[in-house]
Amino acid sequence: MKINLNHLNVFMAAAEKLNITEAAKALFISQPAVSKTIKQLEDALQVRLFVRDRQKGIILTDVGREVLVLARQMQSIENRIFQVASRESQLLSGTIKIGSFPAASSLLLPEAIARFRAKYPHVQIELHEGVSDQIKEWVTDRTVEIGLVASPFTEFEHHSLVQDHMVAIIPDDHELHDTAVVDLGRYQHDMIYCKGGHEAAMNSILQQHHLNLESNLTVQTAETLIHMVRRRLGIGLVFDFTLSSVSHGLTVKPVTPVITREIGVIAISFDEISPASMEFVRMMADDETSRFGK
């Protein structure tokens, strides 16, 4: 028996839901039909893709996880085939799967999505939100084609979109209000650090500058940081890009040493992503070049 795309689509739905009933609902087919299709696929491959668990439903086996990555690649190739064909007739269609962290979703995506939809109304956009480390995993296992993340970009191909820098935030009547630049070395024990899900990358940057914030108060979101600073629990330390995605009314100060990072879009290979995704990347790059004059 040959594998067909329908078998793989059912398998991917079951692997994402890890529940036969939920997969059936998502596919608008019966539960027995899902079970039968998975059994046919397992028989064709002569492996177990799932193990059944009374409490958790179904769990992917090790080989099941490998097959899932390959199935997503096949789905992506099918999507690219249709997009290439529709591009030839100037009716670009299909789906773009994007991973993004919340600040990037708020600041970089709305304008690009609006422009893209106006030009390509038949293309669907599927957004997955998480933190940079999660998004890199999603790109690796083909859950998404492209991801908006903070540097370092490690093994991924990337296009840089924004140059970002760290800032300090304080209440208006803080003792440092008239200080031009906040010295991180001098005040490092007073800092509340907003990691925002970029722990590994940010710890590396801070170590380069011989700063140790491990014993300090750390938070995950800019909103939490703002509340902490308003309660005078310390000096807020956050990247300007993240801070600009929320309203705060606090005083913003530059810091020394200067700490920078990049925000960019990544892919396993830009040569392998779909025409629609490549066009979306191009539009984002054009938006940021226009905005910042790069």
Characterization of the model:
The protein is α/β, with parallel strands linked by helices and 294 residues long. The chain has twelve helices and twelve strands. It has helices at residues 5-17, 20-27, 31-45, 62-88, 102-107, 109-119, 132-140, 184-187, 199-208, 222-230, 240-243, 275-292, and strands at residues 50-53, 57-60, 94-100, 123-129, 146-150, 157-170, 182-183, 191-194, 217-219, 235-239, 251-256, 260-267. Strand 1 and strand 2 form a beta hairpin. It is elongated and about 70 Å long. The model has no long low-confidence stretch (mean pLDDT 85). Residues 3-61 form the HTH lysR-type domain. It holds the Pfam family LysR_substrate.
List descriptors:
single chain, 294 residues, 10-stranded mixed β-sheet, 12 helices
